[in-house]
Each structure stands twice: as C-alpha cells, then as structure tokens.
C-alpha cells in the first residue's frame, strides 16, 4: 500500500491528512480524540497547531515549501490572525487545486457563516466538534477511503448550515454571549426546580435542628441549676 508523508509522518493511502488549527487546548483535544476514535476507523491523520500563523508556516505559505495536507480544519476566532484570514491564504496558495477548508466556531452567526462560505470554505461547523460532524468532514475531503466511496463536497459547499433563531430575551444580547446566556438560563431553571422540591424537607430539618438545640439547652440548665423550673421554658 502506498504511503504519503505529512509533516514527517507517513500516512497510508486513503487517510485524510487534517491540519487542525485552534487556539483552545480543550477544543483542539476534543477534535483530536474524535478524529482518532475507533468510529473514524483510521480515516484521519491529525496535525494540530494552536495558531493560524503556525498553520501558515506548516503549509509553507511563508517559505514556499508546501506541505502535503488534504484538509484544513480551523477555528474562526483566534488572536493575531483569524480563521477567516487563514481560509483566504489557503485558497490563494493553489487556486487550481485548493486545499479544502472547514471553519469551526462556537457562535452561530449567519453573517459569519456566509462570509466563510463565500470565501471558499467547504463547510462551517459549530463547536465543539461532534460525532455527527465526522461524515461532513469526510464529504469535504478529496481523499477517498479505500473501503467506501464518499459523495463529493460540492453539495456541502452549497448547503447553508443550520442557523438557530435567538429568543426574544437573547436577541438584545451581543451575539457572542447568546450561547452562554442560554446555557446559564437552562442551568438556573433546572436548579430552581430541584431546589423547590427540597424546600419542605429543608424546613423540617431546620425545625428539627432548632428542637435539638432547645432540648440541649434545657438539659444544660437542668444539670447546672440542679432542677427544673418554669423559667427554663420562658428563657
């Protein structure tokens, strides 16, 4: 079986060499674990970097030495150089045979999605990467697996990703905070429901603790005063 070199690592034929670009260590690790899982059956070989500038260096966009990469999977929001800037640079690297680029983002903004697709992105995926997104990545790859034929990526490029409509309460918030606001709202709502179920039990517990304290105080006065009087109950 033939093998191709990617960043000094030999990769078997039919394996998609993915350059993963994300400044978040958590999101980067999630994507690596997913694409290296048993469900992917060795379909991907991942090379991960934490910035668009390092991705450009790896691809040879700075020194002219092009690396063999089958796909770029990049985050949109990154410091210094964004995923959108990297997308344009990759597409300009080889206009006749451009490298497929898939953009990821935790924010589901229609303008951002359209901007990337119009610039040549094959797909736009919401983070964190999930198992259902693996087939989308396979469809966008120019590498065909040895055991199966995947459909071409033109349909993915023309398809508009799902855009969630913000609620009336979240519409006034900045777009970058809507997802966090929705998550916090759900947590607070579920927490309030759970707390309400335990209120009667908590009240009973408080009454029981108070009763125990009163009995303890009575016993203490009984033992120290040598007897019991009505004043004990009035104290």
TrEMBL record:
Residues 17-142 form the Response regulatory domain. Pfam families: Response_reg (PF00072). SMART domains: REC. The modification 4-aspartylphosphate is found at residue 75. Signal peptide: none annotated. It comes from the Eukaryota. One of its GO terms (biological process) is phosphorelay signal transduction system. InterPro entries: ARR-like, CheY-like_superfamily, Sig_transdc_resp-reg_receiver. Keywords: Phosphoprotein, Two-component regulatory system. This is Response regulatory domain-containing protein. It comes from Digitaria exilis. The lineage of its organism: Eukaryota, Viridiplantae, Streptophyta, Embryophyta, Tracheophyta.
């Amino acid at each position: 079986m033939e093998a191709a070199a990617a960043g000094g690592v030999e990769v078997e034929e039919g394996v998609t060499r993915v350059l993963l670009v994300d400044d978040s260590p958590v999101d980067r690790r999630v994507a690596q674990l997913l694409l290296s899982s048993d469900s992917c059956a060795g379909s991907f070989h991942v090379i991960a970097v934490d910035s668009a500038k390092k991705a450009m260096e790896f691809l040879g966009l700075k020194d002219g030495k092009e690396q063999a990469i089958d796909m770029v999977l990049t985050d949109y929001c990154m410091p210094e150089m964004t995923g959108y800037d990297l997308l344009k640079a990759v597409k300009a690297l080889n206009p006749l045979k451009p490298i497929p680029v898939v953009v990821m983002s935790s924010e589901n903004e229609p303008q951002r999605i359209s901007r990337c697709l119009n610039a040549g992105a094959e797909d736009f995926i919401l983070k964190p990467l999930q198992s259902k997104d693996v087939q989308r990545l396979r469809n966008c790859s120019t590498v065909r697996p040895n055991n199966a034929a995947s459909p071409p990526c033109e349909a993915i490029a023309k398809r508009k990703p799902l855009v969630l409509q913000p609620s009336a309460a979240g519409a006034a918030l900045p777009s970058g905070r809507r997802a966090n606001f929705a998550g916090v709202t759900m947590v607070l709502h579920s927490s309030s429901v759970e707390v309400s179920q335990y209120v009667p039990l908590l009240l009973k517990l408080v009454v029981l603790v108070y009763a125990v304290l009163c009995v303890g105080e009575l016993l203490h006065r009984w033992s120290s005063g040598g007897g019991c009087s009505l004043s004990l109950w009035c104290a």
